[in-house]
Amino acid sequence: SAVISQKPSRDICQRGTSLTIQCQVDSQVTMMFWYRQQPGQSLTLIATANQGSEATYESGFVIDKFPISRPNLTFSTLTVSNMSPEDSSIYLCSVVATNEKLFFGSGTQLSVL
Amino acid sequence: GEDVEQSLFLSVREGDSSVINCTYTDSSSTYLYWYKQEPGAGLQLLTYIFSNMDMKQDQRLTVLLNKKDKHLSLRIADTQTGDSAIYFCAEGNDYKLSFGAGTTVTVRA
Fold this sequence. Notes:
The complex is a heterodimer of chains A (113) and B (109). Chain A has 113 residues and is an all-beta fold. Chain A is 0% helix and 50% strand. Chain B is mainly β. In chain B, strands 2, 4, 5, 9, 10 and 11 form a 6-stranded mixed sheet that branches.
């Protein structure tokens, strides 16, 4: 398995501001993803973070709202821009480990007031 | 994404077996997964099964797959208080998974 660290673990933000979430992996991984878990709901894939190129977004998610960086094979960031209360969720980073299974970080719990 | 459905709640007595059921619609999935989420934590990969298998056993966990009915189940033997959590069924290809809504398992003494 891979050890995935996410920062911050939780934050409370004001409407209209932006928050950048960091994901650090203890080994090089080919594939990294960002998921969102809205309160009481399941996980939804936001995008695939591509190393050295623009992220690939799923339907309903756009780069202006959720810009993603992936400068190398161990690190990625997700920014939640111009936040509104509807963005209150848990945001999870996930990676494909060497056993080719998907592992998740502990998540960032975001509350927007 | 594809639909994955689970019952929302399960209450079980400590020491009994728990069975969590899941149905899915995408018959092309290569693997099907069970994840566990404890309060305030991320998702922990519990176990998975390759789509050409019917059963997989891993210590207290038994996964049964009925491809014809697109039905997946997770059995936890000798359920303990530490098994209280939300359990997510997931399926997909190319690592883009579709998750069920999660089954909240409560273990009572």
